[in-house]
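Structure in, sequence out. Go:
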C-alpha cells in the first residue's frame, strides 16, 4: 500500500499588538501587513509505503513538529498512534503494561531499550524522562497500528542508546511492515535508522524531500 501525503501549512502571526509589540515593530520598521506576510509556508509531498521510515529534520523553529502534526491528522484514527498521546500508568509494572505474553512483552521492551530488571518491574509514571519515552515507544510497537508517529525522536537519550533504538526501529519496520514518521534534529542516528526518506525543513519555509532509493525521487 502506498500513501501519498500532501501538506501545505502556513504559520500566520496571530499575536496581540500590545504597546511593547508596537514599539518593537517601530524599531524594525514593520507594519502589521508586512509582519503577517513574513509567515513561512511549509509545502511537502511524498509517498509512504508499508515499512517505510520517514525522518523529518531541520533547524529548531523550522516547523518539524507542525508538519508532523499535519501528517498525523491526515491518517485515520484506527491506523495511527503518536508517542506523546500514550499514558503513563501508575498502578502497573512495565512488563504488565505491554500487550502479549511474557516473552513478547520482554522482547518489545528490549527493542525500546528497556532491559534493566529494576526498570521493567517499575511503574511507568515513576521512570526517568528518557525511560518514559522508551516506554511509550514500546507501547507503540505493541499497539498493532500501521503508522507510528514520534516527535523529538530519541532527542533526550544518550547517543549510544539512541543509535541502538534507531537500529531496532529500522529492523522492526522491515520485519512487521509498520511505517514510522519521526521528527528530530539529530543526524547521528541516520546510519542506524536508514530512513527511506528525509524531509528537511528550512527556517525560510522551504521543504526538501530526499528518498534513499533514487528511483523514487520525482
Amino acid at each position: 500500500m502506498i500513501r501519498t501525503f500532501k501538506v501545505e501549512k502556513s504559520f500566520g502571526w496571530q499575536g496581540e499588538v500590545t504597546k511593547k509589540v508596537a514599539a518593537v515593530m517601530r524599531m524594525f520598521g514593520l507594519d502589521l501587513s508586512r509582519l503577517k506576510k513574513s509567515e513561512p509556508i511549509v509545502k511537502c509531498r511524498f509517498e509512504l509505503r508499508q515499512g517505510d521510515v520517514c525522518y523529518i529534520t531541520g533547524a529548531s523553529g523550522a516547523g518539524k513538529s507542525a508538519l508532523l502534526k499535519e501528517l498525523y491528522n491526515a491518517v485515520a484514527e484506527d491506523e495511527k498512534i503518536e508517542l506523546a498521546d500514550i499514558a503513563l500508568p501508575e498502578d502497573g509494572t512495565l512488563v504488565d503494561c505491554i500487550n502479549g505474553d511474557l516473552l513478547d512483552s520482554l522482547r518489545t521492551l528490549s527493542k525500546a531499550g528497556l532491559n534493566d530488571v529494576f526498570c521493567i518491574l517499575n511503574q511507568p509514571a515513576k521512570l526517568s524522562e528518557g525511560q518514559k519515552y522508551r516506554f511509550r515507544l514500546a507501547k507503540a510497537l505493541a499497539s498493532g497500528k500501521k503508522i507510528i508517529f514520534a516527535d523529538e525522536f530519541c532527542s533526550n537519550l544518550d547517543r549510544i542508546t539512541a543509535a541502538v533504538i534507531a537500529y531496532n526501529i529500522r529492523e522492526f519496520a522491515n520485519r512487521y511492515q509498520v511505517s514510522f514518521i519521526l521528527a528530530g534534529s539529530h543526524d547521528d542516528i541516520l546510519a542506524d535508522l536508514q530512513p527511506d526518506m528525509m524531509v528537511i525543513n528550512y527556517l525560510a519555509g522551504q521543504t526538501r524531500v530526499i528518498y534513499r532509493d533514487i528511483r523514487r525521487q520525482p
